[in-house]
Amino acid sequence: MLDHTHLAARRSFVASANGHPDFPLQNLPLGSFCTAEDEMPRMGIAIGDRILDLEAAQEAGLISGEVAEAVEDASLLEGWNDFLAQGPAMRAALRRQVFDLLAEGSAHQAVLAPMLHAAADCTLHVPMRIGDYTDFYAGIVHATNVGALFRPDNPLLPNYKHVPIGYHGRASSVVASGHPLRRPKGQRKPASETEPSFGPSRNLDYELELGIWIGPGNALGESIPISEAAQHIAGYCLLNDWSARDIQGWEYQPLGPFLAKNFGTTVSPWIITPEALAPFRIAQPKRPEADPKPMDYLWDSADQAHGALGLELEVLLLTPGLREKGLAPHRLSRGQASGLYWTPAQLVTHHTCGGCNLQPGDLLGTGTISTAEGFGSLLEITRGGREPLTLASGETRRFLEDGDEVFLVARARKEGFAAIGFGECRGTVTPAV
Amino acid sequence: MLDHTHLAARRSFVASANGHPDFPLQNLPLGSFCTAEDEMPRMGIAIGDRILDLEAAQEAGLISGEVAEAVEDASLLEGWNDFLAQGPAMRAALRRQVFDLLAEGSAHQAVLAPMLHAAADCTLHVPMRIGDYTDFYAGIVHATNVGALFRPDNPLLPNYKHVPIGYHGRASSVVASGHPLRRPKGQRKPASETEPSFGPSRNLDYELELGIWIGPGNALGESIPISEAAQHIAGYCLLNDWSARDIQGWEYQPLGPFLAKNFGTTVSPWIITPEALAPFRIAQPKRPEADPKPMDYLWDSADQAHGALGLELEVLLLTPGLREKGLAPHRLSRGQASGLYWTPAQLVTHHTCGGCNLQPGDLLGTGTISTAEGFGSLLEITRGGREPLTLASGETRRFLEDGDEVFLVARARKEGFAAIGFGECRGTVTPAV
């Protein structure tokens, strides 16, 4: 499975890439960027603190064969949507070519130099045009914590361990890291009030999730067998499923979350490819004996053996008070991602088992993920707001206040391999208008 | 509000339009079509049993001024998405020009002749590229009927009369009338069984809804005031929200319907414009005294006075047995649409009140609508399958069987105006694979 693009010893001629916490030569994530001089979004690849303009490299003849044709065709159409529709072999071929171009000893350093833009001067976009966005609920620790707030004795509903629970989210309001997040207004009716009222959400929260980018996908009426599901995953990102808990509590029965979730969803703008993550695959944790075995359509021994992702996740909170006093962000959670009850492949297969068509650029969220040291939302950390956090600045938090900035971080490490990261996924809450 | 395009006495030189049950000169709905000779989708307008190739008419210089520019620009981009992003004034201007072109006495009959394709020879597509699809639950009769199956004493949840209930649907699987509908497979667990199982849905149903096409829409973080909401409705269609009741019953808690609804949604392919429907606007039925008054953000007296639609709806079922015996389709319901608790404008405003951005081509479903003579789904008609229908063929139906074809029909009539119709919305159930 692994080729030369994983050799930890290989270094890039882009000096900042060597030892870069996110984007060493072994990562090469895919993104859509523009510069101050040229606001037209282009396909780019991150390397250290630079972004390679892939379209310029292709135009200069530095990409060859079928890959060059695919890049050229895609650049004229919908960018990564069209390229990633080509599937894993094409994606891996691009990776190998770009690895060799950017490695130390590359014969093309001089010609590449003007195509390597300082990332700090670029704007990053949502990397694919999202057709549909689906959010799952695969984090069993989160589902148990949230269920326990309502049903202490019986937190998980009877379907949870049989069927991957998911719902359709809003694609239009998915934004790239850095986009401000305006506090939504809406109807809410706390238990302490007899009538609902309309106004800014009082219980604004984040949710730590992973996103799964789809390509190529399936035709309507067909389904993707579990053994083929991994071929339809184009890559991964971080995903903050901002949630207005008070709006959600009032509106969500009987059809699920709606305005409580559709005012904004932040993704990290780099597509971390399955090729880059290959060394970090791990076995899906064994289910407790008492749990039902997944149904046949969701069961694949290879997927169970190495279909999960070994990732360290972290959530940081920077408040106005911390910022003012020059204090470090408050760490809300950290550690190995844990408790995803279904693998990404199982989510893909379940989504299509009734014939629903997935398309290149569709985005799936895993559901909120807890880590070894902490939960993935304030709802869980403060027990529904009843146990506020106290920060080093003296501020307290039940939920997010205006001016708060939330950072999600994901890194993969393994002895003998270069560590890689997902890059920035952050958003600042701005006041309701 | 009404201009010469509503004069019932005006006739078209396209003979089939005069007295046509759906598409007289006074309708002029917007669609996307292709012919056997040219498979590239084009913007078209229905007139009788013909389709005017609007792009050809524009190229021939028959459309003038700003409208011509807008048609030309749109034809190069995403068709009706881009045209309808221009808003109501542009749409109304196009209507007036096309009305005059197609009216009796038009000076352009000869040059138009080759641009008027026989509709029977054309293929119709979903008329806009759908960004996001949202389904509401505004049919209070349906919500009460369905609620009563689970909670006989208390069918409506406490939020129902305060907040327009809705959820995000799946855009990728929205298809145009005539597309076959494959029976989905999925997990289901009837009350009579102890364990869930996987297989073809046994309780496949239709739902009679209206669809609302959006254009222009709002920016993320902003909202559309109720007084401006109508300006963002580009038109209407029929919508069949096919539903697998057994899959729904097992999967839907706590996050709402997912695979039970995302295997296919059928729309009628013509966008019926607000201009065509203007004579048929009616007052929103007064709420019972005991009901809460809508909150301020949802309340507009003009919207209450003429923001609802006066439509006759009908659902027909043609089964293999009826077809074989040459019998007429079975009428499942008929009559004036009734019981939409919220107007289309209220749905639009509610959707955006938290800052969620609507975009041109977004589609909203109203929720299932009952009529004076019948309910909008088999779930209601057969009381959850407990009281099967008997058809003239001797067949019985709890839910839909393979080979069944469902037709939705909508017509608007009013003394002194030409009646108009929405055109075909049909789909045939094909077996699971």
TrEMBL record, chains A, B:
Binding site for substrate: Y137, R151, Q248, Y252, T368
Name of the protein in its database record: fumarylacetoacetase
Enzyme class, spelled out: hydrolase
Binding site for Mg(2+): D241, K261, T265
Keywords: Calcium, Hydrolase, Magnesium, Metal-binding, Phenylalanine catabolism, Tyrosine catabolism
Organism, as annotated: Falsiroseomonas bella
Pathway(s) where this gene product acts: Amino-acid degradation; L-phenylalanine degradation; acetoacetate and fumarate from L-phenylalanine: step 6/6
Active site location: H142
Domain Fumarylacetoacetase-like C-terminal: 160-429
EC code: 3.7.1.2
UniProt GO MF annotations: fumarylacetoacetase activity; metal ion binding
Region (Disordered), start-end ranges: 177-200
Nucleotidyltransferase listed as a keyword: no
Record bears the keyword Magnesium: yes
